[in-house]
Amino acid sequence: MLNKSFLLLCISILFVLGAGGFGMISNVKESKAESVAPNMVVNGGFEAYKSTSSDGWTERRPDGWKVVNLTGVAKATVDLDAQHDGTAALQLQGGPKPTRSAVSQNVSVRENQFYEASAWVKTDQLVSNDAGATFRLQFYNAANANMNKHITFGSVKGTEDWTLVTHRFQAPAGATKMLFEIFIWNGTGTVWFDGVALRKVTPVADIVLDRRTAALRLGEQLAAGATVLPEQAGNKRLTWISSDPGVAQVQEGMVTGVGIGSARITVQSVDSGVKTEMAVEVSAGGGYLKADDDTHRVKEDQQVNGAMATRDAEGNTLSYAVLDFPRNGASRLDPAGTWTYTPNADFAGTDKFIAVVTNGKGGIASSEISIDIVPENDAPMAEHEQKQTLKNTALKAKISSYDVDGDMMTYSVLLRPSHGTVALGANGDWTYVPETDYLGADRFTLSVQDGNGGNTEAEVSLLVAPPRTEVIAKLKETSAEQQHPRLMATADDFTRIKEGIQSDANMKKWYNNLVAEADAILPQPVSKYELPDGRRLLDTSRRVLSRVRTLAMTYQISGDEKYAERAWKELEAAEGFKDWNPSHFLDTAEMTHAFAIGYDWLYHYWIPERKELLRTAIADKGLKQALGEYRKQSDWSKATHNWNSVCNGGIGMGALAIADENPELEALAGEILEGAIQSLPTMIAEYAPDGAWGEGPGYWEYGTQYAVYFVESLHKTLGTDYGITDMKGFSNAFRFLIQINGPKGTFNFADGGAGKINSPLALWFTHRFGQQDAIWYHQNSYNADRGGLFDLLWYRPDTYASSTDAPSRDAYFRHVENAAMRSAWNQDNAAFAAFKAGDNSVNHGHLDIGTFVYDALGVRWVHDLGADNYNLPDYFQKNRWQYYRTRAEGHNTLVINPGAGADQNLEAKAAIVKFDSNADGAMAIGDLTPAYKQDALSVKRGMMMFDSRRQLLIQDELHLRKPSEVWWFMHTQAQIDVRPDGKSAILSQAGKRVMVQLLGETSASFSVRSAEPLPTSPAPKQGANDRYKKLTIHLSGVETAVLSVRFVPLADESAELVEPRVTPLDQWTLPE
Q1: 390 and 509 together in one domain
Q2: Both 689 and 831 in a single domain?
Q3: 23-77: per-residue pLDDT in tens?
Q4: Can you give the residue ranges of the BIG2 domain (predicted)?
C-alpha cells in the first residue's frame, strides 16, 4: 500500500467514560493493569537541586533543568513548601508585566515513537491573555536542526489546585531529540509544576473481532472474541456497547438476543478510542444469508461505482448499510446496494469498506468491497532557491526536490549561469564557482526528472557578495574623508533639491509640506520608552524615525538650526532608553535607521561629543544586537518576508553610517554589511518573476521601502548595490502596487488594510529602472499634493515631464497567483475586481485562496476584512486559524464541510491556470483544488469582467469526494435585499445599487448572515465585524455543483445588459 500523504499524529487525550458518553454502556471489560514505562525526564520531581542564584535561578536550581526569559524576567526556583508529592516543586513567578519564561530539558526521542507527557500544575492568581501555564515540545533532527514541528499543550490560569495535564503525541519522522519546555506564557502571578514525566507508550491501533455479523434467535447467546493490536499495547481495556439493549445486550463480550430487531455491538479501546462494530440481527427463529465479496480497480484521485445483488437466493429483497467505512477514502452506499467510492487525495494502494446486508427474514451477512487504487505518475517537486556566496568562493548545495511517488530522480542543467560554472552530481548536489573577482547576481536552472515522464524545473538565484574587508575598503574609497551625508542622499542631492525648490512647482509644494510637518514636530514632547502591548516598541521607533528624518532633511534644505536641535532632543531621549527592544527586532532595526539618518544627515552639525554618543548608541543598541543573528542565521536573516528587508535595511544603514570612524567600528560594521548584503537577496528573490508580493500590498510597501532604503544607501555610499537590484522581478515590483490598487482601495489579501497606497517609491522605480507605468501612477493616481520628503529625494523633473500612456487595465502575477482587472484608470466610478489563488503558508497569509474584491460606481461592494489584532493570543502561532478574519469563512471564497479545524489546507498552493484580456473584458480561472484537496476532486473558480467591462461574473465548479456541505461567502458593507425567490439580491450603499444574481438552473439560493463564525467554527475572543454582512449560498449533500454569480452595477437601468448563459469554465473565452 502506498499512502502519499504525510501524517504527523498528535493526540491530546482527556477520556472520561460515563453512562451518557456512548449511549448505554452494558459492560466494561478490563485487561490486566497497564505496565508503566520509565520516566525519561531527569529530576521531574525537582527533588535534586543546588543552592544557587546563578544562571537565572533564585535560591535553588534543579538539577538537569535550565531557565530562559523571553519576555520579562520570571522568578524561577525550587519551592520546598508547595509540592504535589515528594519534597519539592518548580516555581515560576511572573513579573509585574506579562512574562514569558521557560524551564527546559533536552530528552532523546525516537522518530515515530508514541510518548505521553504529563505534569501536575498549580496556579495562584495567574493572569494571562494567552496560554498561562503551558508546555511546548520542540523537535530536532540528527543535525541538531530545529524541525519546526512544535507541539504546545495545556493551559492553566487563575487560581487552581494541583491539576494533572497529559498529552500523547508521536515524534515526527527524523526526530532524535526533543526540548521539553515548561512555560509561564505571557502571564503574571505564580505557577508550580511537579511530577513532570515523559514515557514511551504503545497505543492500541486496532481491534479485530472474530466475526462481524451474527444472526441470533430470541434468548440465544454468542461469545464475541476481540483481539487488541498490537500485542505490546500497554492498556488493553475495552468497553462493549449495544446500540439497542432492547434488541441485544452485551456482557463482557457475551451477546444475548432479547428482542426482535437489529443492533450494533461496538467495542472500543479505553486507551486510544479505536473501535469496531459487529452487526446483530435477532429474530424469532434465526436466519441465514450469504454475501459475496467484490474487488474493483480505479485510478488515483478518481471515483468508482458499483452495485450489489438486490435479492438473495430465495428471492428476498436485500438491504444494505455500511459496517466499516474505508480508511483511505469515502464511500456512499444506498439501501439498495448501489455504492460510490472516492479515494483520499493522492492515495494509492488497497482500501476497502464492509457492508452489512440483511434479507428481512432474520438473515444477516457482510460483504467486503476491496478497491485497488492504481497510482498515477506525479511529476517531482523542486523548490526555487536563493543562495549567496562570497567573491571567489565556491558554493556547494543540494537541490531541494521530492517525488511523491518515491520514484528515483535524475537531474540535469537546463540553463547554465552567466557568471560562473555549475557542476551537478547524480543525487542533486551542485557546486557553483563564480568567475574570478565577479560580484553580483547570477542564476541557473535545473531540471528534475522521475523516469516516468514527469519533470519539473527549479531556478537557483545567486548573489556573489563582497567580503567585509572589501566593503570597508570600497566605502573608504567612495566616501573618502568620511564623506557625509551618504545614506540615500549626498550633499549634491541636497543641493539639487534646494535649487529645484526655487524653480519647480512640484518641488516647492512638496518642500512646503515638509516644512509644515517639521514645524508640527517642534513643540511635541520627545518620545518615551513605551511597550503599549507589552511586547513592541515599534510605534516609538517609527515615531523617532519619522521625526528625525523630517527634521534632518528640513535642516539640510533650510539651514535652520532649530530643526537640528529638535532632532537632537529626540535622539538624545532615545539614546537613553535601556534598549531598543531587540526581542522584537523590527523595533531595534527601525530605531537604528533613525539614528543612522540623524547621524549622517546632520553629521556636519554635530559636535564631537554628540557624534560619539550617537555612534555608541548605533553600535551597542543596534549593530551588536544583530551580530548573533548574522552568525547563526536562524530568524530574520534567512526570512523571505518583510522582516528580512526591514532588519537588514535598518541595521545595514546603521553600519554604513559609522563604518569608517575607527578600527573597532570598521570591524563591527564590516561584519554587519557582509551579512546584510548576503541576507537581503533571500527576500528580494521573492519578487520573482513579476514583482508581486505574497504578503499582500501593505507588506509589499513596508518591505519594499526598506529594501530601497538600503540598496539606495549602498549606491550612494559604495557606488554599487552588488547586483541586488538586478535580481529577477525586482525592477517590476512597482507594477504590482499599481495593479493591486483599485478606485476604492487595494486588494488587501493577507494581513493588510484596504486603504489605497500612495507611495513615493514610484519615483525611485522610475529613476532607477525607467518604469513608465510608475510615472503615470504618480502623476494620475498618487495624490501629489501630499508629497514630501521622499518625493523631493527621488523626483527628476525631466523624467517626470515625459508623457506616458496608462498601464494595462488587466494584470496577472505569477508566483503569488493574483489577477486584477478594471474598466478604466483614474475614474472613481470605474469597475475593479481582483482575485487570488496563491499560497496559504506565506508569512502574514490567510486561508484566502479564491477570495476576491469588487469596486463599482464609486463603492467597494465586496470587502476583504484584513487583519485582526496582532496581540490576540497566538495570532501568529497555534491559534491563528481559530480567528474569523484569518479563516476561509472570513473571506469571499468557499468553505467545504466546515468544522473546528482550519477550513482550507494550510499548505495549499493554488494557481491561476488561465488568464486572458482584450478591449471588451478580462478573465482569470484559478484551480483551487489544493485548498480543498481532502474534500474535493476538483474546485475551480473563474472571474470574468465582460459586456464592455460593465458586468462581473464569479463562477465556481465543484466535484466533491462525497456528499458535502458547501458555503459560498461574500462580505459587504452594503444593505442586502434578497428577492423572494432567493435567486438575486440588491446591494445598496451610498445611494448606489448593484444586483447580484444566481444564473442557470440551480437549487441554490441567496441568504444573509452576520460576519461571524459558523456554529461549527471556533469562536475565541476576537475583533468584531459589525460593519459587515455576508451574502451567502448554502448547499447540503452535494457531490457536484456549479455556482455562477453575476454582479451588475445599476447605474443606468435603461441600458441593455448582456445576460450570459452558464458556460463551463473550460469553455470560457472572451468575445473578439
Answers
A1: no
A2: no
A3: 233 333 343 445 678 999 999 999 999 999 999 999 999 999 999 999 899 999 9
A4: 203-277
